[in-house]
Design a protein that fits this description.
Alpha-Beta Plaits, 102 residues, four-stranded antiparallel beta sheet, 4 strands
């Protein structure tokens, strides 16, 4: 069963564009990781939100310790207000199976 992750990143004042660029650059590399089903960057109200779906908890674990995330963490150093707020979600299927879950 897929694992859905929502990670909220808060850029420091004046660094939104730099943080967005670093996240956008990481997307292509992460898309090529085994088990990545979705890795999509969104923004609202000064925050950046990555919505992710991984084929399994194991795939997410490999990503979490892998070189792409290590490089991204390094690129964001000094540009963000702390670690991302990461929430792992479990689908509650309802309605149309395609439209009712990520």
């Amino acid at each position: 069963m897929s694992v859905v992750v929502v990670a909220t990143i808060l850029p420091l004042p004046g660094h939104h564009d730099e943080v967005a660029a670093a996240l956008a650059a990481a997307v292509e590399q992460v898309h090529s990781e085994d088990g990545c089903e979705l890795y999509a960057l969104h923004q609202a109200d000064g925050r950046l939100v990555m919505v992710e779906r991984w084929a399994s908890a194991d795939a997410l674990d490999v990503h979490s310790k892998g070189p792409n995330l290590v490089a991204l963490t390094s690129a964001l150093a000094g540009l963000v207000a702390g670690a991302p707020d990461v929430v792992l979600l479990e689908a509650v299927p309802a309605g149309d199976p395609v439209k009712g879950q990520l």
